[in-house]
Amino acid sequence: MTLINQKMIRAFIEGRYWRHPVRALRIFAAETARKNRGYKRAWEAVGKDAGWTYTMMNGSPDEATLQRTGREMAARLVDALALQSSHRVLELGCGVARIGRELAPQVGEWYGADISSSILKIAQRRTAHLRNVHFRELKRADLPFEDNSFDRVYSHLVLFHMDKEDLYLYLKEFARVLKPGGLLYFDTWNLLHPEGWERFIWELEHHRHKQVKPAHRNQFCTPDEVRLYVEKAGVTPLHVLDPSFWVQTIAGKPAAGVSLDELQALPRNLDSLIPHGRWYY
Ligand SMILES: C[S@@+](CC[C@H](N)C(=O)[O-])C[C@H]1O[C@@H](n2cnc3c(N)ncnc32)[C@H](O)[C@@H]1O
Questions:
Q1: Of the candidates 17, 92, 144, 270, which lies 20 to 30 Å from 24 by C-alpha distance?
Q2: 114: CA distance to ligand 1 center in Å?
């Protein structure tokens, strides 16, 4: 198989990559070079180009959209995780702090952890005015935080960019760093939803002729599969929302003296968490 095939040339023309030749080279480097295995390599390449980084967060084309969608997601999380102004909060895969920049003023301390130092540099610039924001660069799926140290943990648009083994390892880490009685939110692609399946086929076609599948490609779960990983990781699934192309999970860490009913009653306004339409723009 040749390194550059007809499909790639077509993608170059149809995907309008010719407008951004340097970006096209970076995408090529992130997705095809044999040595570019691993999440870090792929996401470091993304962070070298602010325009590409913005689209790789949630499709936002510019700073204004990034801030608007960040504000909207932050509001959804305030309700879904019953966030309080005293809470110590962790986001895994914080990216450019699209959500963190808007959420940090509403909580006690906000921590953003990410695999990409180049993306974290952009996040630092975007949050330089905030005093309760902290960043950690990660090397692999273990979190450099103490046991039982966060009231809330969330991860949006991240865990489907990795192998299931790493998704599960991160869930175990979330269970470890959450305080007893703490809450967790994360999402994955929903293979059982027609649009989730459509995206699975798109992803399959997009990568099937590559010598090496990019480490950061999208991967897919069923709601039952997610529930299994969550339970095995040591947290209790409270709400597994599956009416959309995402499986959106809120889980709680059991605590002595706190019943499952009490934990389950904490999340509010869950309908607003479910995307109506194709994406959160
Ligand atoms: C699609 S972006 C989402 C960013 C942010 N959560 C948001 O909604 O704007 C995915 C982020 O996850 C990070 N990421 C990907 N794989 C990771 C891994 N294995 N460990 C930690 N972070 C990872 C990437 O560097 C990137 O910043």
A1: 92
A2: 6
